[in-house]
Design goal:
The protein has about 170 residues and is mainly beta. Helices cover about 5% and strands about 40% of the residues.
Length: about 170
């Protein structure tokens, strides 16, 4: 993925028969997804300008001017929606976009390489870093908390971790 685009949501398919769509927002303030329009696919193609109609279970019903039929809406199911980084708000020093963490090298407090961040996951409680072990396809999940991850240095591309006993 290009560093200039951040995934802010996805299209779940049609909502009704008049071309409305279901979307899921990944934004901290979910309704802000509308303000980041136009949104695009990951490669920057197909600009979508969203207009939120109403909140629905697990997301929003939206209109996109170019989508007028249920079939057109169904064809967009699964499309990830990206905003340009410069459209998004800047973050405080201790907050990060998930895409900024992916690919960073993870070191322990003694300087030993633990692996590389493969993905950032959230299953409800808090963010977890999926760390791929060096020279392996195996991964380990680390809680993304200040106690376990005391330092994130985006400039050097490194994360310092103090993992719980026995994780590695």
């Amino acid at each position: 993925m290009s560093d200039e685009f951040i995934c802010v949501g996805s299209i779940g398919g049609s909502y009704g028969v008049n071309g409305e769509l279901r979307i899921k927002s990944y934004c901290a303030i979910p309704e802000d997804i509308e303000t980041y329009s136009p949104l695009t696919r990951e490669d920057g193609s197909d600009a979508f300008t969203l207009a939120i109609i109403r909140q629905i279970k697990n997301g929003y019903a939206v209109r996109i001017a170019e989508v007028t039929t249920k079939e057109q809406a169904d064809a967009l199911k699964g499309v990830q929606l990206y905003a340009r980084r410069d459209q998004l708000p800047s973050l405080p020093d201790d907050e990060y976009y998930h895409s900024d963490l992916t690919g960073l090298q993870v070191l322990d407090t003694g300087g030993e390489t633990l692996g590389t961040v493969k993905s950032v996951q959230n299953h409800g409680a808090s963010d977890l870093l999926e760390v791929q072990l060096p020279d392996s396809s195996a991964t380990v999940l680390l809680p993304f908390t200040l106690a376990v991850i005391p330092t994130v240095d985006l400039d050097t591309g490194r994360i310092i971790a103090d993992p719980p006993e026995g994780v590695f």
